[in-house]
Structures are given as C-alpha cells and as structure tokens.
Design brief:
The chain is built from 15 helices and 21 strands. α4 packs across α5 and α11 runs antiparallel to α12. By secondary structure, it is an alpha+beta fold. β17 and β18 form a beta hairpin. The protein is elongated and about 95 Å long. The strands form four sheets. Strands 6, 7, 8, 9, 10, 11, 12 and 13 form an eight-stranded mixed beta sheet that branches. Strands 14, 15, 16, 17, 18, 19, 20 and 21 form an eight-stranded mixed beta sheet that branches. Strands 2-1-5 form a three-stranded antiparallel beta sheet. The relative contact order is 0.09. The structure holds zinc ion.
Length: 475
C-alpha cells in the first residue's frame, strides 16, 4: 500500500522537520507492514526492524499523530500474561491504582514504566485496517495480547490450547474429564471475566451445567462439581463474539499467576518514555488534566540545575545582556538534554528541572552540559557556571497548573543535591553510583573526573544520605 500517495501524508512529509530521506523511508516501510501491525504499531520495534534512528522515529509518530495520521493509545498490559486489560485514548482515563486481569486472576498496578504501553494505530481516514481477531487463534492472541511481551511457556500457552470462539447467542458444550483437587477456570478473555470450577471428592454423575456469560459476568460466580466426566453448556449472552479459554491448575499451584511469572519483553514505548519526550510535551499541551492525577513511576531520573552568573554581572552589563546570555546557554543545555532523551519539566528562575529515561543518560548529559557551557565564547567576567544535582527513584506524575509534573521524595532529594553543589560541580546520590552502566562509565572517565564520597545528615531523613561530588578535570 502506498501511504505516501495519501494527500494528508504527502503534506505532512513536506512540512515535517526531518530529512526527506528519513521521512520518505519511514512511510515507505510503514506502507509495507501487514494490517495487524498497522493496527498496533510499536514505534521502537518499527525503528529497530528498519534500522532507523529510534528517537527520530518516535518523534515522527508523535508529530504524525498530532497531524491526524495516527491515533495514539495507552494500553494497560498485564506483565505476567501480556493481556491488554484496557486500551485508552487518554492516560487521564487510567484513574485507578490497579486493574484486574482475569487471565491471571491478579490485580495489575498502573506503573508508567512497566505496565503502560503506548502504541500508534493508523488513522482509519488514512487507511482502513482489515484485521479480524477471530480469524484464528494467532489473530486472537495478537489482537488481545501485547506483542511486546513474549508468550512462550506462559499461561497463554495453556489457554490457547483450548481456545473456543462463540458468536453472540451461540452455545458450546465443554466436556472435561476432571480430577479431584484440580481447579478449572473458564475465561471469557475479551470480556476480562472468569468462572471458577471446583471439583469435589465424590465420583459421580454430573448433569450438564448451564452457564451463560455477558459483559456483566458469568451467570454463576463459581461452581462445584463431582469428579469424573463433566459437561458445561456455555452460552454467549453478549452482543459480541467471545474467545473462551480454559486454565487448569494443579493442587498447590496458585491460580493467581501474575506473581513470579514475568514475561520477556521487546522494547516498547512506555508511558514513562512518552512523558519524557520533548516533542510530546510540547505538542500535546494537556489541558483539563484531572486535579487528582497520580500516576506511578517506578524509576524517575531527575537533573536539577542552577545557572549562576557572577554576582556583579547585572550591575556591570545590565538585565538585557544577562538575559540574552542565559538564553544562549539555555538553548545549548536544551539541545544536550534532547540528545540524551531528556526533557525540560519546568524552569523556576535560574533553576531548570530535567528528567531522563535512565541514570546513565542523566550523567552523560550533565557531563556534556558542563563541557558545553564552557564552549560559549566570552571573557572570564561573563562566564556562567552550573550547579547540578542528580537522583533516581520512584515518583508520581501529577498535574500542576495543567502541566505534567513530578512529585515525591525523589524530586526533593534531586533539588537538595543541586543546592549542595558548588559552581561546576555535579552532586549525585548513591542510587546513581550503584547503577551498573554508570559504574562502567566511571572506568572510562577515570582520568577526566574526580569523585568524592560524603555522608551527610539531612533534617528530614532518618538515615544519613550517601552522596558523591563529581568535578571535571580541565587540562
Ligand atoms: Zn495477566
């Protein structure tokens, strides 16, 4: 399919701020993807598959979504089975701390790094995807389960063996030879509902059991049957086609399989990565955010920075001069942050708060910023200095004045470290020092930096805070 012949795509290609070779390749490759991929595109996988720059590809998807070429969705994915529990066009609809996965019979927390997958779908006005999830088992699983999570050997393997499709109004008799103490569970997968079947000790004749299911639930919450051969006549009382799976659990085995059953993953665009994307933050200025927005992040890396000028610079050169000077530096810093996939969260006077996808990115950015700012040509008296604090930890995404902001101890500590730092010093926490990639980087940098470890007592913390000071050795 030639996507580039579409008028909307054509005008997007002409106006978009990307090299024409890149953007043309992007749409050519995309047009060759099968319908099931176009229905749910993982932008990172798309970039890797076609050997394109990941950051630029994500930016193209975001810009093109803004231009109406894609729809953007937020999936809450069960990390144990890959089931897409909910699909929302806006993350503000993810307003509960956790949601139930009927496949695993477990509560799955909303965590932006781990359980929220962002994907793009080609807009129906551009191309209408022909994809029937009920065509076969393969189509069904790739529609209702995320392809970013490997399914081999998981609970899905068991369910798929016995997967049955039921049209609205259709009845199917399930015959099972059941054993004592075993637990059986029927799952109406696309309704996210399940029915427990308990097997008792008595050997006996079971009359066929009539059960119906619709979106409100199964007609029975659980049933108890005798061992031996059983028949369950299940009727689809809903208005949609259903995929019914069956899970058998041995005695002692937990029917709740979300614990300890983490699937392998291919890289995907998590909610965290999207919120950290400058293009997204600039384009999708999110108005009318719910006041009580509280989304969890397992790991947030923050860089707090203060730009300092010599105290008498305002007196000597005037406000306009200092303003221009800071702006010039600001652009350099912004460009460096962007190179390491960082985003400016907010500015407060001379203080800037950045977030990064990982500790190593924040450290490399801080290092480049200190070097970058020294490359601006000026005399000694107009030189600016940076004070930098870095920390990594969990946080909440909240709404502050209709902007996505971060809240929690991680923010307080990163800001505190910035205050401790002197001119051209980077202060960072033990959380960063323990990071494997950072450890490797320190080996490479050993002749170019000096590190000092300190234990400091902070009023609002019980234990002493272990911190590190890093200074660059200038030759
Ligand atoms: Zn699950």
């Amino acid at each position: 399919m030639m996507l580039i012949d579409n008028l909307k795509v054509k005008s997007f290609i002409q106006a978009a701020p990307f090299e024409s070779r890149l953007i043309n390749t992007f749409f050519l490759k995309l047009g060759n993807e099968p319908d099931e991929t176009l229905y749910r595109i993982n932008p990172l996988l798309f970039a890797h598959k076609h050997d394109l720059d990941e950051k630029q590809v994500v930016d193209i998807f975001i810009l093109a979504a803004r231009a109406g070429i894609f729809n953007l969705f937020f999936n809450l994915v069960c990390p144990a089975c890959g089931f897409i529990i909910i699909k929302e066009a806006s993350f503000t609809s993810l307003n509960k701390a956790d949601y139930f996965c009927a496949v695993c019979h477990s509560d799955i927390p909303v965590i932006l790094d781990d359980t929220i997958e962002v994907f793009f779908q080609i807009h129906p006005a551009i191309y209408k995807v022909e994809f029937n999830p009920f065509e076969n088992v393969e189509c069904f699983t790739s529609f209702f389960f995320s392809r970013s999570f490997y399914k081999t050997g998981s609970i899905i393997g068991h369910i798929v063996d016995d997967l049955a499709f039921l049209s609205p109004g259709e009845m199917k008799i399930f015959k099972l030879n059941v054993q004592k103490d075993m637990l059986y569970r029927f799952i109406a997968i696309n309704l996210n509902l399940s029915l427990f079947v308990y097997i008792g000790n008595k050997q006996g004749h079971n009359n066929p059991l009539q059960v119906t299911v619709n979106k409100m639930g199964f007609s029975q919450k659980k049933v108890s049957l005798n061992r031996g051969e059983i028949k369950i006549a299940l009727t689809n009382d809903s208005e949609q086609k259903l995929g019914i799976g069956l899970v058998k659990t041995s005695p002692g085995e937990s029917h709740s399989s979300a614990n300890g059953n983490k699937l392998n993953r291919t890289p995907f665009l998590s909610g965290k990565l999207l919120f950290n994307n400058t293009t997204f933050r600039n384009l999708f200025k999110i108005k009318n955010l719910p006041g009580n927005l509280k989304l969890k992040l397992r790991s947030l890396t923050l860089l707090f920075m203060e730009i300092q000028s010599s105290p008498d610079l305002y007196e000597r050169q005037g406000d306009a001069f200092v303003y221009d000077l800071i702006q010039k530096h600001f652009y350099i810093l912004e460009e460096i942050a962007d190179r390491y996939q960082g985003a400016i969260i907010k500015t407060m006077g001379d203080v800037i708060m950045f977030s990064f996808p990982s500790p190593i990115n924040s450290l490399l950015a801080a290092f480049s910023m200190l070097k970058g700012i020294k490359s601006v040509k000026h005399d000694e008296k107009t030189a600016l200095c940076l004070k930098i604090g870095l920390h990594e930890g969990h946080a909440l995404v909240i709404n502050r004045d209709d902007l996505l902001d971060y809240f929690g101890r991680t923010v307080t500590i990163a800001a505190y470290l910035k205050n401790l730092a002197g001119p051209d010093e980077i202060f960072f926490s033990d959380a960063l020092f323990r990071d494997k990639e950072i450890k490797k980087e320190f080996v490479k940098l050993k002749d170019r930096i000096k590190l000092y470890k300190k234990h400091i007592k902070v009023k609002w913390m019980i234990n002493k805070l272990v911190i590190y000071k890093m200074v660059i050795i200038h030759n």
